[in-house]
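Batch manifest, entry 17 of 40.
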Amino acid sequence: MNSRLSMKSSLIAPCGMNCGICMVYLREKKKCPGCRVFDKNEPVSIARCKIKNCATFKRSKSKFCFKCVKFPCKNLKHLDKRYRTKYNMSMIENLDNIKKFGIREFVKNEKIRWDCSQCGGTICVHRGYCYNCGK
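Output type: structure tokens
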């Protein structure tokens, strides 16, 4: 399995999630293309996402939730709490960093944070190990 970190801004979801470190993106079978991909083959989790489908967010026509008048909304706070508790990652902190430093700098820092020091593969946020070498 080769899961080198494919780090690009198009993999950063509106909520601040880095889809490139998600287990559903990293797996071999039935890979998720990332939250920014909108087509008929969209995974059910993306189609049902309350944040991606938020009417206020869609009206704002922005790329990230931090530009929304309701930021951070209850849905984002709930997601953020779950990820901080279970995975030691904060969506709101990610969005604050994107706002403060820009998407390019954020992506560069994500590459450093989630790059496996053993093989250069990707550390999965959900599993806590590299999908390439298992370390």
